[in-house]
Every structure is written in structure tokens, then in C-alpha cells.
Amino acid sequence: MILGKVVGTITSSTSGIEIPGARYLLVEKCNQQGNSKNDFLVALDLVGAGKEEIVMISESTSARETSTTTNKPIDAIIVGIIDLIDENNKIVYKK
Amino acid sequence: MILGKVVGTITSSTSGIEIPGARYLLVEKCNQQGNSKNDFLVALDLVGAGKEEIVMISESTSARETSTTTNKPIDAIIVGIIDLIDENNKIVYKK
Amino acid sequence: MILGKVVGTITSSTSGIEIPGARYLLVEKCNQQGNSKNDFLVALDLVGAGKEEIVMISESTSARETSTTTNKPIDAIIVGIIDLIDENNKIVYKK
Amino acid sequence: MILGKVVGTITSSTSGIEIPGARYLLVEKCNQQGNSKNDFLVALDLVGAGKEEIVMISESTSARETSTTTNKPIDAIIVGIIDLIDENNKIVYKK
Amino acid sequence: MILGKVVGTITSSTSGIEIPGARYLLVEKCNQQGNSKNDFLVALDLVGAGKEEIVMISESTSARETSTTTNKPIDAIIVGIIDLIDENNKIVYKK
Q: Minimal Cα–Cα distance from E15 to chain C, Å?
């Protein structure tokens, strides 16, 4: 999985995805300190993530292994909001 | 999913894909402000996207999770036309 | 899907793939004008593509969604020979 | 599969993954000498890997081919702890 | 598929993969002339490839479409030993 920071929202009225109430977030990939990578993706939010939160994202087919996304053309979902990241025994990120 | 701008069309008469009336668009990846990345792909259009529109693209196996693309060797589809992108509470793109 | 130009052939007598008469082509990724990217892959040819032709390539699981490649360890196939590419209303490639 | 070095842990209380007791490790991709690549990912640990150990990681759908991860939105797992790497007949890494 | 040169072996006693007698090779990606790209991966060998040989590698789900790798968390296999590569009508590699 990769880490990203929620930075915005995407609105699309003409969609072939058919998930009622789907919430698409603009996520910027980041490292474990929360530093941005200037690389963005659009992910379906499954956990109620808010702006500036660091999240864990599953991609590709793994993104369809949930009841919401089964058989949907979704290739990136937010599967967790990160509380704490420890790197080399130091806390480098805390929500 | 990734964002892209529709920039052209692709015509292929010798095809192993077998989707009648398939419409292949040349899409340039772009960021949330619509700025181009000089990175292109060919995507099957499912939503009637027009030139210069920013679209949302699903890739890999997710691209086959629609009635049109089931069991077809398609790895990129346009699943939505973007109306609005908000980044850090500013509207950065509006159709 | 991505675009590539056929530049050569690959011969492998010791293979675990088991597709009789399989034809593996060396393909160089290219842009919509046919300009090379110096990035190569090996793709199974399904459409009788010839040298110097620009082709459309499906990758990953999508490469197995054909009668020839079902249940075979193939991750890239040539699915179409390109006739025409239009970019911003100009013909940038014609076979 | 790719090689990586375990460098930390990730804690996420708000998760859509539903694997009880799941242990997510922060892994830095490395080469066969164990040199870091400054490229990180989050992987589910299946083998009890410890910090500083070099591990083998399976990605994408392959990451769901275990009893723990079947039908879970997991796209990276640690499948082995590396004991020894030989490159050009020299041992370049030993646990 | 991609091309690579076999450069070493990987030993892992603590593994979650469960393929008896599995042989993991360290492979360096290379171009069609056999020139190295300084980009390495670990692949399961299915064809008895030897050091310095150029091989064809299938990745991702395609890597599980063999009797050995069905339902195993394997994402890269060696599917063929290359005998000959022709590029623009010149033999650029011969075993």
C-alpha cells in the first residue's frame, strides 16, 4: 500500500462507475513524514478521511476487494487513516 | 484513478479487441489544474468525453469491470468527465 | 493501452508459455507521432503486425482476455495496428 | 518480487481492511546489497519480519494469494525473510 | 514481457510462499543487446535459467498462470530463455 495526504475533492456528474454517493478524493502521495511527493491520484474514500489526513491507499485489483467496490471500475481506494508512523524507533508522524 | 485531458483519437482497423463501435481516445495525463504531463495513453471512452475535457481514467483489471469491457483486452477506460476539482479549498478546475 | 513501434523479433526455444506458433515481437514504446521513447518490451503478436508499424498494446491481466492467451503467463499483447492518429485536430500519424 | 528493508511500523485504527491483528510495516526498497533506494511502501507482514531485515515483497493481486489476504484490499505483503543473496558468485548479503 | 539477465540467487528460509524446491533468481533488467539497466527484481525460475542468460519475464497476475504458481503469492516468473533477438533486421543478441 502507499501513503498519501488528502488534499481535495473531485466532482464528476458524468460517470460510468455507478457507486451511489461515491466520494472521490484528490490525494497527494507522501512519505512517512508526511512530506509531499508532488504526485497525485484520485481515490475512492471508504473510511471518511478528511483533508490533511495521511491515509493508506490500496491500488489495482486490491481496490475492488470490498463490498462497495466489487465489480466496479475502481483502481484506488483509501483503506485506512494513519494514526502513527514509527521509523527507526522514532515517531515520525502522529495524527 | 488518474486524471487526463482528451487530446485526440486513435483509429485501428486491424484489431483483436472486438468491441463494435469502440472509440479510442488519445489522453494526456494531467494534474488537478489541468496542466499537461507530456505522458500519453490510449483509453476506451465510455462516457462520451470530448476534446479538451478532463477525465478520470481507470486502469488495469479495473478497466474490465463494465458491461462493455468484460472479457476484453482493454486496460484503460474513461470512467468519468470531471466537473470540478477542489484543492485545499480552492476550485482549481471547473469544466 | 500504450502505443509502440515494432522493431524486432524474439526467439526462445526454452519456454514455459506453451502457445504453439507464438510470435514474440520486440516493441519500442513511442508517442503519438511515432517518436521512440527508448523503452522496449516483448509482446505477443495477435494481429500480424509488421516491422515499423505502430501498434496498440494491452498489458497485465488484460493481455489474457483473448482465446489465445487465456490462462497463459502472458502480460503484453499487440491488440491493434494503428491506421491513424489525430491530435488536436491534426493527423500526426498515418500508416 | 522486490527486495526491501524493514524500517518501521504503521498504526491505523480507522481501517477498511478487516484483518484482525494485521501488522503493517514500513519498508524501504533496497538493492541486493541492502542499499536503500529512498522509495517506501507499506506491506502486510506474514512472516514475522523484524527491523533492518531484508525481505521479499509480493505486490498487486499476488498479495492476495494467501489465506490471510484472500478477498482483502491488500496490495503488498512480505512473503519471505532473506537469508543470503549471491550476485555473480559473490555473497553480497547475509542475514 | 520484459527482458532480464540472470545475475544471482536468493535464499530465503522463512517464506510464506510454499512452493517446494522453488528457485529464486536475482535478475537484472536489460535491453535487447543485453546491456544492463541497473534495475533488479527477484523472479521464480521455471525453465532452468543459468547465470548470464537473457530471459523473458512475466509479471503480476500473469506470473500465476502456470501449474507451479497457481494460487501462490508470486508476481514475477522466468518464462523463457532467449536464443536470439533481431532488431531492425540485425541480430543483436545470440545465446
A: 23
Name the pLDDT band for A13 (thresholds 50, 70, 90). Answer: confident
Q: For residues D58 and A81, give the distance between their C-alpha atoms in angstroms, rounded to a whole number.
A: 23
Distance CA A78, CA C33 (A): 37
Which among B59, C3, D10 has a CA at the least distance from the CA of A85?
A: D10
> What is residue B19's predicted lDDT score, i.e. its pLDDT?
86
| 3-state helix, strand and coil shares in percent for chain C, rounded to the nearest 5 | 5, 55, 40
Q: What is the pLDDT, as a whole number, of residue D50?
A: 92
**Nearest-Cα residue of chain E relative to residue D37:** E39
Cβ atoms of residues B87 and B94 within 8 Å: no
Which amino acid, D69? T
Per-residue model confidence (pLDDT) at position B59: 87
DSSP state, A47? S
Mean of pLDDT over chain B: 90
* In chain B, where the domains are located: 2-94
Q: In this complex, which of D60, D65, D84 lies closest to E72 when CB atoms are compared?
A: D65
Residue E77 pLDDT more than 90? yes
Yes or no: say if E76 and E87 are a contact pair by the CB < 8 Å rule.
no
Cβ(A22)–Cβ(A42) under 8 Å? no
CB-based contact A66 D16, cutoff 8 Å = yes
CA distance B36 to chain A (A): 13
In whole angstroms, give the CA distance from residue E67 to residue C19.
Answer: 15
Lookup: cell for B46: 465510455
Optimal mutation site among D5, D9, D13, D14, interface A, most CBs of chain A within 10 A: D14
Å between A36 CA and nearest CA of chain D: 13
The whole-angstrom separation of Cα B23 and Cα E54 is: 39
Tens digits of residue pLDDT in D35-53: 998 899 999 998 999 999 9
Those residues whose C-beta lies under 8 Å from the C-beta of residue A81, and which sit 6 or more positions away, are: A47, A48, A49, A53, A54, A55, A56, A95, D12, D13, D14, D15
The CATH architecture assigned to E2-48+58-82 reads Beta Barrel (2.40)
Contact predicate E47/E69, CB 8 Å: no
Is pLDDT at A17 greater than 90 in this prediction? no
What's A2-94's CATH class? mainly beta
- Measured in degrees and rounded to the nearest 5, phi and psi for residue C67 equal -65, -30
How high is the ipTM of this complex? 0.75
Using the Cβ of A67 and the Cβ atoms of chain D, whether some distance falls under 8 Å is answered with no
φ/ψ bin of E64: left (φ > 0), alpha (ψ from -120 to 50), beta (otherwise): alpha
Residue among E54, E30, E28, E22 nearest E41 (CA):
E28
Q: Which residues pair with D45 in a beta bridge?
A: D78
| Partners of A56 in beta bridges | A3, A80
